[in-house]
Amino acid sequence: MRKLIYEGYVSADGYATDKYGSTDFFADVVAPDSPEAVEQVKLLEPVDTILLGAETYRLFVKFWPTPDSKKEPLSEFMNQTPKMVVSNSLTVAPWPKGKEVQVMPGEGVESVRRLKEQPGGDIVIWGSLSLTHDLLRAGLVDELWFVVVPVALGDGRLVFPKDEPPLNLELLQARFYESGLIRQHYAVHKTASLPVS
Question: How many alpha carbons fall within 13 Å on the CB side of residue 88?
């Protein structure tokens, strides 16, 4: 079965966005030519499919296919790698230069389950927190790749869904950068049992 990886920037207190839904908290820390940005491209070599929710697709298509993205090391990967969007609101998902995104309608968890059973390389999901929460609950996320930003937001949207049993995570990699960022990769194991009080 193909491996599904969630990758994202998170604050030191675990938030993927601030309380207004913005991800600007990491924009000033991650320079296009930084070692962490360049390394990300190499880490993604086994990935051959990008998975997105509808909202994240709408955000990405406004930037990545444009000339403004050319300075980003991730630009070629983002524009050339096949993309799939889980959505019942979209019927088509254009991507300039003939790189239309495949729309996966229906129940998101089952669509992703079928995608993982198909032949192919690894799958990466960015943003798309509602979809990510559903996939975590269903046990379909195999690895979590966090880039921890040295800021505490105090409030916002968490990567992990609330009021769920604990997850057992195995640290696969930890790397520290001069910028203060920390890259952490975890394998997701079976759901842990809640302690009996």
Answer: 6
